[in-house]
Amino acid sequence: MTVTIEAPALTAYIARIFEGVGAPPEEAAQVAEHLVGSNLRGHDSHGVIRTFGYVQQVRNGVLKPGAPLTIERETASTALISGGWNLGMPPAIQAMDLAVRKAKGTGIAFVSMHDVGHIGRVGAYGDQAQRQGMIAMGGVNSPGGRLVAAFGGSHRRTGTSPLMIAMPTGNPDEPFILDMATSVVAEGKLKVAVNAQKPVPDGWILDGEGNASNDARDFYGTGEHETPGTLLPVGGPDGGYKGFGLNLAVETLSGVLSGAGTSIEGVRGTNGVWFMALDPSGFLPIEAFTTGLDELIAFAKEPPLAPGHGEILTAGEPERRRMAHRLEHGIELDDETWRQINAAAEETGTTVPEMGWS
Length: 358
Prior knowledge:
Oligomer: single chain
Distance between the termini: 7 Å
Strand order of the largest sheet: 2-3-4-13-5-8-9
Number of strands: 14
Helix content: 25-40%
Structural class: alpha+beta
Shape: globular
Radius of gyration: 20 Å
Strand content: 15-25%
CATH class of the largest domain: Alpha Beta
CATH topology of the largest domain: Ribosomal Protein S8, Chain: A, domain 1
């Protein structure tokens, strides 16, 4: 069974849940808008499925809603930030704003952050920067988290280490936003598959014995094998060394540079973060940059097309299409995800809305 909910109603419900664990209303709204925004764009792995886990981190004392951000070290073009162990989205929004402000003065800025919860979909912060005329890059790691095998390995070594690159085009609502895990998929997509009781494609995971599997439960050790399995780096059996190389690079920039810790040791369920903002107007007029990128995208999308493909899509287009569809038709949640959200609501004293099943 599934339940379908309109985005505004779901956003309001999730915001009330986070207010219930102590988040100031403005910050609760930021978290809710981010999570629902991820579902709207088809990134269900980083959407409201995360609600229960975030609430548990607060109740366990790991996260402290409303905690202030602190700049620990700073130059004209850099900053080292403590997120105060707040929920991830509010300090991440502030961190990217700081990077943008610095880049407007120096041309380029790099901000690193530790002591912060899971910041969600990294592409959202790239969108935040490009709307202010900036090119942005960024990534996160998961201190103490091990989900992905090294290329050629069969056991967990690193996190999924997502990487983001965002650039403005002539239309601020149609930017180029690359947001990718350096593993084949984000781990949250396995949670979605487990909740929906669906198999995963070939090449995503190995089971606890190092064999290929299509059962997402094998990743968690709740399937046929009790030993947890592992995700694989992006690139497949022949090109996985490329994804593994990117994985280690993002892990280092996120966890070592910030002091948050790497997959070797750190606070589970949190992020080390890095954001970079670059002002293209330091090189050429912004209109010249966006025109050049628009022309490049149009050129890349020209036919002929490969067999079986009806069009060419660039980074950000699939998300915009899913968003248009889900804004019109609602967000569909599986019954297990909905049950978990309602369990989080009950723990925080939030009234569970009456919803019809479809």
